[in-house]
User: Fold this.
Amino acid sequence: MPDLRPLLRTSTFRLTLAYLGVVLASVIGILAVVALSTAHLIDRHTVETVAAETAGLMEQYREQGLSGLGAAVASGVAQSLALAPGGSRSGITITAGRFLGLDRDSAARVSFVLLVPIVLGAVLLKGVQDVLLGDLPAGSTGPFVVGTLAAAASGLLAIDGLLGYVRRHDYSVFVWYRLLAAAIVLLLIATGVRSAGF
Assistant:
């Protein structure tokens, strides 16, 4: 084995170590800032979203009485239809809300509020099953938490964008997309490219 001591004493090697140290410190710093700002954003967004949705449901109850709350419960029950392959949970709950007389904005808000317990339950279940009790490698907790926070942040931004869209537009884009996707699936089944089984 060659003697590496002369190489380790060179200024080039020391400069390389210093450079790697700065890069590593920068990456750690950036990750820390992103993690802290994301956690703050999620906390603030979650509180604002829950407060706004609670206020919206209370307003709906004041305006429509028990029928308004009944619409929210019926939309929740309609979620079970999304268990069918290809079903859209948000599409089904928004459609149920519209059939029950909710305006576009209220139907979309109820649909997204109904998503919170589902996603929270899934995160807790997978966190306990896979991270705490599972046989994942050591150190999996950090990536799980960062991934969950990143998914929550992007999900909240997507929900905010979609709610803004449905306040100004109708649902026809989503209806045409679903009809086109269904036609493609039926065509694939009819031509034998895919089987009809689930």
